[in-house]
Amino acid sequence: MKRRAFAKTLSLLTAGLILPVARSHAKTYLSIEQARQLLWADTPMQAVALTLTKEQVKSIRSSSGIRVRNPQMKLWKTDNNGWFIVDQIIGKHENIDMAFALDREGKVMGLEILTYRETYGFQVNHPKWRAQFHGRDHSEHLKLDHQIKNISGATLSCRHITDGINRLTQTWDQVLRHL
Amino acid sequence: MQWLKNRFAGWLKGWQQAELNDTSSRAPGQLSRCQALLGTFVEVHLKDPEAATDDKTLIAISQAAYQAIERVQTLMSFHDPRSKLSRINASAHIAPLPLPPELTDVLRQALSLSQLSDGHFDITVAPQLIAQGLLPEHRSKAEQQRPVRGSWRDIELTESAGRHWIFFKRPLQLDLGGIAKGYAVDQAMAAAETMATKQLGAGHALQITVNAGGDLRSNHWQGMHVSLRHPADPQQLLGSLMKNCALASSAGYFSEASTQLKTEKPSSIIAPHTRTPLALQQSVSVFADNCMLADALTKIALLHPQADSLIPQLGGQLIRIDQSGQMTQGLSRADSI
């Protein structure tokens, strides 16, 4: 028991040392259920338990150029072979929980921001950046300045959303389409 | 040591995978959404104080708001070479082009403010922003060789055959970055109101707020508090009471942020008379009775030497926050008359 208590103290102390001290604040928008309603209305869907294998993680990383931080997927397959995916996008200064709808061809039909946790970067005060995500699929690897227009200032957060879309469309291409 | 490793493995895993649970504990009759549009995050908040409106109705109302914003983006994006604005930039100096009503609204407001501010508000500074890499270049190499020397005075708006037309007396590159976001917020609010009336009937009590990265409009602003960022420390928030239904802010804090990230970028605010980027030492916030006006007035507030007396005459109420976080409240229109 003493050992356990010691480990607890040690991990708490270490946490204090290594966790970044950031005055962050979170904004919560939709619940998962609301996002599902919004993106898929009443289309029936079943939860699918999926943990990506090491090989899949590696392969998605190399084709999308984006690190897969969490191999455990949170996803639902709809009766018309589409997908509802809840995923976390981790940027340098923010964590964004997002919900995505992919159709049976793996195209992005819609996305919703569920929660935004920031240290700074929320009030990105710059104009005009076309969020041209809809209808993109794995064959069109999104690159800032090309398909998705990039602007200064907003790049921090917008880039990470673009990255997240690339990672998920590659995940669809390599794994989900075969399920 | 294995037990220690196991313990840390589990704990680290838990930390890395931060909670993705359905934690939102939302009251009924409310909906908050956020979408990446206009180069920022656009929030729509809906609240029925009687909690009687169902989710489907709220979703339809929020959808109307986002569609209005997407339409403004499609018309007025400088980045998109196929937008109406880009087509005007490409050829309005050759022959007059017809204007959709939305662009007519924005251009009229912009030109009227250029006149009233003695050119301190000018939508023709895009070439400088292109040179700084803040806006993309759509012109051909040959066209780029030709210097663009025009100003807002070279824009001609005319009306004939029941339509509005635009003509440039010289080649120009218009950028509506200083005004279109506020207009998009106004359009979103109008669309949401119309949809709410359609769904809930006239005289509905639905509270609607649209916030596009600090350009904000609310239909229940009385008594509402807003947070304004400290210009030197964007994480620090300063409170103010809403003084009108629309609010917009401009500041240099994200230029500061980019400096910290070692990707130094000049300010995106160009002084029209000198055509040089403004060194921002402060943030300004302007309240007005529409968000397009509030948005445009923030630029005048930063650029015009007599802004403090001019802003209230133009229908705005100004708040300045300096580098030390000192807040100065400007006069309201009533005070200035």
Which percent band covers the strand fraction of chain A? 25-35%
Quickly count the helices of chain A: 4
What would the principal axes of the Cα set say about the shape of chain B?
A: globular
The amount of beta strand of chain B, in percent, is 15-25%
Topology:
The complex is a heterodimer of chains A (179) and B (337).
Chain A: H1 2-18, E1 25-28, H2 32-40, E2 45-51, H3 54-64, E3 72-78, E4 83-90, E5 94-102, E6 108-118, H4 155-174
Antiparallel strand pairs in A: 1-6, 2-3, 3-4, 4-5, 5-6
Helix pairs in contact in A: 3-4
Chain B: H1 2-16, E1 30-37, E2 40-47, H2 55-76, H3 84-91, E3 97-99, H4 101-116, H5 126-131, H6 141-145, E4 155-160, E5 163-168, H7 180-200, E6 207-212, E7 215-218, E8 225-230, E9 233-241, E10 246-251, H8 253-260, E11 270-271, E12 276-277, E13 283-288, H9 291-303, H10 307-313, E14 317-321, E15 327-329, H11 333-336
Helix pairs in contact in B: 2-7, 4-9, 7-9
Could you explain the architecture of this structure?
- The complex is a heterodimer of chains A (179) and B (337).
- In chain A, strands 1-6-5-4-3-2 form a six-stranded antiparallel beta sheet.
- By secondary structure, chain A is an alpha+beta fold.
- In chain A, a hairpin with a 3-residue loop joins strand 4 and strand 5 (94-102).
- Chain A has helices at residues 2-18, 32-40, 54-64, 155-174; strands spanning 25-28, 45-51, 72-78, 83-90, 94-102, 108-118.
- Chain B is α+β, with helices and mostly antiparallel strands.
- Chain B has helices at residues 2-16, 55-76, 84-91, 101-116, 126-131, 141-145, 180-200, 253-260, 291-303, 307-313, 333-336, and strands at 30-37, 40-47, 97-99, 155-160, 163-168, 207-212, 215-218, 225-230, 233-241, 246-251, 270-271, 276-277, 283-288, 317-321, 327-329.
- The longest helix of chain B is centred in the first third of the chain and has 22 residues, at 55-76.
- The N and C termini of chain B lie far apart (77 Å).
- The chains are: A alpha+beta (179), B alpha+beta (337).
- At the A-B interface, helix 1, helix 2, strand 4, strand 6 and helix 4 of A face helix 1, strand 1, strand 2, helix 2 and strand 10 of B.
